[in-house]
Design goal:
6-stranded mixed β-sheet; 5-stranded mixed β-sheet; alpha+beta
Length: about 220
């Protein structure tokens, strides 16, 4: 995969991909997200946070992904990328099959592609103000773009804690690693949409990363 880092192109071949779940810092926020998913039949987690290993090729910069059925949806999340000694912050969507999630969260994470933006920010440029980073997502609903998620990284567990808990640094000794780091509650509840738009804004350095993608449901074979 090719990423843009301050105007230069950075090729990265991922060896491992992690999806961190239930990463809210506020207990009420975690309970809210658990209730959201419980409404979809998803069992509560055994502990928080949890780290799911998924196939590295699921990470994609495509503007269109294919899904099974009509019950999947996206979630905007910070993406940590570690390659060698270098660390970066990016943005991705933990697109998840909600119908399958009611049976197995791990399998629901594995079955969907994880779209990500093409830009990365060097960790050294953001580590002193990570909690000020803003993230939003929008879904195309009723013929218009509707705000779906909104928050700052201050509402997610410190990213350094997630790095330590996941063993990301150790994995990175054997190749590049990506980790999606959790999300915010959905405004109006978790629901599918054919188009998903997300953005990550750095208010200190005045820059924004964006990405948008469509979800196309695979047709049944007669």
């Amino acid at each position: 995969m090719l990423f843009s880092v301050n105007g230069r192109t950075l090729p990265i071949a991922f060896s491992n991909l992690i999806v961190a779940g239930w990463t809210g810092r506020n207990a009420d926020a975690i309970a809210h997200h658990i209730e959201e998913l419980a409404a979809l039949g998803v069992a509560p987690p055994s502990t928080t946070p949890l780290y799911y290993r998924v196939s590295a090729p699921l990470l994609t910069q495509a503007s269109e992904i294919e899904v099974v059925g009509a019950d999947s949806s996206g979630e905007v999340e910070p993406l940590i990328v570690q390659t060698g000694a270098e660390r970066y912050l990016g943005m991705a969507s933990d697109h998840t099959d909600r119908a399958l999630e009611a049976h197995s969260v791990a399998m629901s994470k594995q079955v969907c592609a994880k779209p990500c933006a093409t830009a990365l920010w060097p960790w050294a440029e953001v580590e002193d103000h990570l909690e000020e980073i803003e993230m939003r997502s929008y879904i195309f609903e009723g013929g218009d773009w509707v705000l779906y998620q909104e928050g700052t990284l201050a509402s997610i567990r410190p990213l350094t804690d997630l790095i330590d808990g996941s063993g990301l640094a150790d994995l990175a000794q054997n190749g590049a690693v990506g980790m999606l780091c959790g999300t915010f509650g959905a405004i109006g509840g978790v629901r599918p949409a054919p188009r998903f738009r997300m953005e990550m804004r750095d208010p200190v350095l005045g820059r924004t990363i964006t990405h948008e993608y469509d979800s196309v449901s695979l047709a049944d074979i007669a």
